[in-house]
Design brief:
homodimer; 391 residues; alpha/beta; Lyase, Ornithine Decarboxylase, Chain A, domain 1; TIM Barrel; 2 domains; ten-stranded mixed β-sheet; eight-stranded parallel beta barrel; 11 helices
Chain lengths: 391, 391
């Protein structure tokens, strides 16, 4: 017997937060597959490169934990100098806060009483908690709840870059909302603006992406100036991501970047193209799904044990990491069928091979644990504590 | 500190097995969204209808738990008369066995020592455990491990219906494998054949599906006769699914059906067409993702809080259950953008509406719990204990 609230509170630490050290280190080829593995050498380089790049451009990093869902990784990013983390959902933020992290921005608006209650509980625990709002009634709802709790809740206005997903239109409408918050919501503290231009992150080709992004961001820059010219301070202007990190640092408008995927990368991000070629390789793939060849019913096919329950299906196709001349097709929930057109190495039953995920975020969300490795050996297991926390 | 084996054993009951009774029943509109909800009236009808249909045709039901991943549902299916359950993976079978179910068939072959060890552990606990094999060395591997454990392991031969996913070719090759098992693998007990014709389940149109299925199944029927004419008894011939349940019962070749989706249904299955129309409605949708309208950045769009981390993306599109004249588009990991072409009812921010999942299996796999409801109220929570058990 339990109330729903007790049940939900218990589910926060459903999966542990801390790494599990293994008594006996395990070679990769003894892992049960499909297994989510992290190449620690590549991962370390990715984390350091983004942090150093932004620091040298006087930009902060507010890394998006919706990508990795893992307190261990978030704490590493903070230790390297990130100013805080982003969470996409309230339940993700609950996990991150319960693991000991306070500098959290919830990047998606909420509108229902039960979610508001949970956000207020988070804010009571830490005054550093921030959340976005994107309409006047939403701000009033948060303000009323903050008043009852006798706290001051930090909010940012979410601007719609034309995606039509979340956010208020840049310009006069955003100004009205800011004025409402500043003058009519005494229990809200206005922290600034968020403009995440998700419709640019995967634009193919650096020049095209850069141009499109600059055009869209300009509306956010103008809105910031509009607020400031109306005597409303805008200390934070947050947005951007892995696909625009170097564009954002050259523009210099954002206070901090909301990047996530740079830590792991994936097929989709690689293929957007970089400043110097068709592959965006500023960050190296460090996340793989290790999968076993389990059946060979036909001569030119071999079947792996990673299907649509182990790899995201929303964008491009998975790729075998080290083998050319093959093509991966989804073969249902538990299987991937690899077409052996002209394989650069022989694949035999029992082989455990790394697959580059098409899209890292929803792939990670399918697993409870990472197996990080160095020199082919896994020494500890990292819980993906916020996996499935989509609420 | 832990060994990998201890860690994996602990993860079997990572999520509890039994329903959690709520102190205070909760109306649907107070659930935190996105939430996976089950309409119990529809679900009960679906379960009874399939069981009764098969019983009246002298066929068994070996329901596939890869779909629902839930011991509570599996036990209900067994209580209604199912002869056993199917699991797609070893870790799924570990959860089901730990919850108290012994009649388990693992429907996908395994080839690595660590998986073989785990299957042997399951078989030591229950002699009813069965697993498929699809090549001679695979049978030898299982036989050697069973000999070491001093047990007799029940195996079925998996036949490839031309999908090229798993299975051995029907006909002489399958006979050779059966002879190998019967005459050279003293620690294996040959139970029969599996032929899951997955490439037919979603063939559009009943007549077309029926014809294609009958043609492909004939190879399995012929193989069964070939084995029998070579003095090898074939007590089990298992296969089929929701999309062929009435075709299989009219053919009468299978001993039991491996159906899963009939309990919940989804957009993909509805659209295959039934005997009497464009919609396959022998079973009613009983599973929905309850989602909240959280943002309205543009007049003709409204954004819900269910994206690609809450709904499968591998087949068709999600649909709002009760509203016509709208179209759901994926808007990233956490959002769905609904295009308001000509909505049959107004949708306002805060509305919690049920969405029919495009594909039930991989949607279920994104959640830890079901909220079953009757008369709009949830009285208990059912753990999806085998969620993420893709190993």
């Amino acid at each position: 017997m339990s109330t729903l609230q007790q049940f939900l509170r218990n589910s926060i630490n459903h999966i542990p937060f801390d790494p599990i050290k293994l008594d006996t280190p395990i070679p990769l080829n003894q892992l049960p597959t499909p297994a989510l593995i992290i190449d620690l050498d590549k991962y370390d380089l990715n984390l350091a490169k983004m942090q150093n790049h932004l620091a040298s451009h006087d930009m902060g990093l507010r890394c998006h934990t919706k990508m990795h869902k893992c307190p261990t990784i978030a704490k590493k990013q903070l230790a390297l100098g990130a100013q805080g983390i982003c969470c996409a959902t309230v339940s993700e933020a609950e996990v991150m806060q319960a693991s000991g992290i306070n500098q959290i921005l919830i990047t998606s608006p909420i509108v229902t009483p039960e979610k508001v209650d949970r956000v207020i509980a988070l804010a009571k625990h830490s005054s550093k908690l921030e959340i976005v709002v994107d309409y006047i009634d939403g701000a009033s709802l948060l303000n009323a709840a903050a008043a009852v709790a006798d706290i001051k809740l930090r909010v940012l206005i979410d601007l719609d870059p034309g995606m039509g997903r979340t956010g208020i239109s840049p310009g006069p409408k955003a100004l009205l909302l800011a004025q409402h918050i500043v003058y009519h919501c005494p229990n809200l503290e206005f922290s600034g603006l968020q403009m995440y231009i998700g419709n640019c992150m995967h634009t193919l080709g650096f020049e095209k992406r850069s141009k499109k992004y600059r055009d869209l961001l300009q509306q956010g820059i103008d809105t910031k100036e509009l607020l400031e010219s109306n005597d409303i301070a805008v200390p934070v202007f947050t947005g951007g991501g892995t696909g625009t990190y170097d564009i954002d640092s050259s523009i210099g408008a954002l206070s901090d970047l909301q990047a996530g995927s740079y830590a792991f990368m994936d097929v989709e991000y690689r293929d957007i193209g970089g400043q110097h070629g068709d592959h965006f390789d500023d960050f190296a793939p460090s996340l793989f799904v290790l999968s076993t060849a389990i059946s060979k019913p036909q001569d030119l096919l071999i079947t792996f044990d990673a299907g649509i329950k182990s790899l995201a299906t929303d964008t491009s196709y998975p790729e075998l990491k080290n083998i050319k001349g093959v093509k991966y097709h989804f073969g249902g929930d538990e299987h991937g069928i690899v077409q052996l057109d002209n394989p650069s190495q022989e694949i035999v039953l029992g082989d455990k091979l790394p697959i580059i995920p098409p899209h890292c975020d929803p792939t990670v969300n399918l697993y409870d644990f990472y197996y990080p490795f160095r020199n082919g050996v896994v020494e500890e297991i990292w819980p993906i504590s916020a996996r499935g926390k989509s609420q």
